[in-house]
Amino acid sequence: MKMIVCVKQVLDPEAPPTKFKIDPNAYNVLMPSDAAPVLSPFDEQAVEAALRIKDANGGTISVISLGANLQRDVVKKPLSMGADELILLEDPAYVDGDSWSTGYALAAAIKKLGQFDLIFCGRQAADSDSGQVGAAIAEILGLTQVTVARKVEVMDGKVRVERVTADGYETIEAALPALITVSNELGEPRYATIKGIIEAKRKEPIVWKPGDIGLDTFKIGAAGSRTRMVKVYQPVHVSKCEMVAGANEEDAGKNLAKKMAEARLL
Amino acid sequence: MENKGVMIFAEVTDGKLSPITRELLGAGRKLANDLGEELSAIIAGSGVVSTAAKIAAGVTDKVYVVDDPLLKDYCTETYAAVVEKVCQIAHPRILLMGHTTIGSDLAPRAAFRMGTAAKTDCIALDIDDMNKQLLVTKPIFGGNALAVFTMETFPQVATIRVKSMTTQAVESTGKGEIIEVALGLDPAAVKTTVLQKVVAENEGVKLEDASVIITGGRGMGGPEGFKQLEELAKLLKGAVGASRPACDNGWVKDIMQIGLTGKIVSPDVYIAVAVSGTTQHLAGCSGARNIIAINKDPDANIFTEARFGVVGDWKKVLPGFEAEVKKLMGK
Questions:
Q1: How confident is the model at residue B202 (pLDDT cuts 50, 70, 90)?
Q2: pTM (two decimals)
Q3: In a shared domain, residues A212 and A245
Q4: Nearest CA to CA, how far is A72 from chain B (Å)?
């Protein structure tokens, strides 16, 4: 199996909400320097999905990440988990794009990599929460897509996917090659092994500039976007919480019930 | 040809319009009125003509119906072909879908196929008076910020977060027209086969329908505490939910997850027990009319959204709460 996983470096989504600051003029979200970037968590689960197939069926995993100022210790994490190679589309021309222009660049890199069986993406990035890059890649490459997977297996030359639905899941079968987006229901991604960390340190990522994959800069990044952000702001929140106390914690619980009864909430 | 009018993609469950479709019809009618243009709907599936007739006669100006046995199960490829074909006929300015299992998969793929773009999981829609462009508001960074976007290509496609639009009582115009569209699908276009559909719904009251929800978070520390929440839920005739960490840790079923990537609920009373209140979680419960928070951390973010709060260990607070509730209910 030849597999490709697309991963994105994002601001840490687990950072407390109070740390998020908006720069409305730059249409940007800022984080203080002590909040280190991470791989978007769903993308780590996409790496895990590919690793499980590698464990079961054998094969290779190429990881692609697109951006600028990609921190090597962040984007190399899939290598330390067991992926085989890392390709970085790292250039200012790639950034600030929308799902379409980002998918366009990733599809060009995938074409350059040659034949493949499966492409994995996270169900959505933790920053844009858009969930469309997978569809863009699939449309450009003419692939079958299955989104929001909780389990992915390859058997008899076909991919079998459990897709999360509102009231459970459905099992879907498709021919290869295909593109799958992965959800958190897949389960925790594995930890890096010591051996993996050492190997990842030795492996240098391959960096492809737009010209290396035949891309015109007006078709990628901000220039190639079909959507435009016209405003960004933080919702203002005025807390109106009435704190209920008591002689002790159990008593506070009793008082809460009384308060709720008074407010006709019971 | 100039793009005009607002179109919605209708979803049908068990022969009836699904709740999101009623939200879409309400939102779509408002935009159509603002623009002074028509509202139309796409309805696709196998045996959907009678449902289409109801929409048509009711609240839309036109319904494009694509009825084909090959559309029985949802498949991205065939449904994208439906959307592309109908838009080639109708040239809508705006195309709205629900941010559902189907809509979130279909909208981007269909948009890209038509050379346009989509914005997903939107919570507000407006028309720019200056140029009639659709402006969509969408939470980003798990809800830590809100962004307003426009699309520079047509149709402008957006998916709408479930329960974000009030289901408006849409007045019946009674003049809707049904237009049947033959797609001539090739069976080879059905690229995915649905082998089985598994409903993992919990017993008792469904989370989406519950008027009282008791949710346990990371601070529950394990599956045991959820039994206590179940008891309380029975007492209050409610349902039990969970935050994402509680599901990811395997303490409860994934289907119980409330939040950005789980269920979106809007009960009268939402009791959050040991839930810190990340923005990702609040995305799923901020539609609740009253949030009650129990958390031992006085700085927990959940308190900013709550009407009543208790700072304390749930293991001690809940027994007192439950005893008093029983007393008040005369049990």
A1: low
A2: 0.92
A3: no
A4: 23
